[in-house]
Design brief:
It contains 5 helices and 3 strands, in the order H-H-E-H-H-E-E-H. The protein has a 3-stranded antiparallel β-sheet with strand order 1-3-2. The protein is about 65% helix and about 15% strand. It has one domain: Orthogonal Bundle (Arc Repressor Mutant, subunit A). Strand 2 and strand 3 form a beta hairpin.
Length: about 100
């Protein structure tokens, strides 16, 4: 059990250790649930690159994924224990 918990924590830190992923999280904070195509357009980045980052965030349970037909929609996971911290960080960023 300890190994599984350590792996989960490592995945969480890995997901948050990248500035681009933090930018994606901030974008979702500001805009709510968004389709992967909207995220790609906003960052002017290819879908494979965005999908890689979204997968890491999903695997760490930081964001939620909802599939509608062939499209995936992403939003912040407000049930995650880290959400209150992310909320405070993003709230301060949005006030600058």
């Amino acid at each position: 059990m300890t190994n599984r918990l350590l792996t989960q924590q490592a995945n969480l830190f890995k997901a948050l250790s990248d500035e681009f992923r933090l930018r994606i999280l901030f974008y979702l904070y500001l805009n709510g649930e968004k389709c992967v195509c909207d995220i790609c357009d906003f960052f002017n980045t290819g879908q494979s690159n965005i999908s890689y980052h979204l997968k890491l965030l999903c695997d760490a349970n930081i964001i939620n994924k909802r599939q509608v037909a062939v499209w995936n929609y992403y939003s912040l996971n407000t049930e995650n224990k880290l959400y209150p911290y992310l909320y405070e960080i993003f709230k301060n960023l949005s006030q600058e």
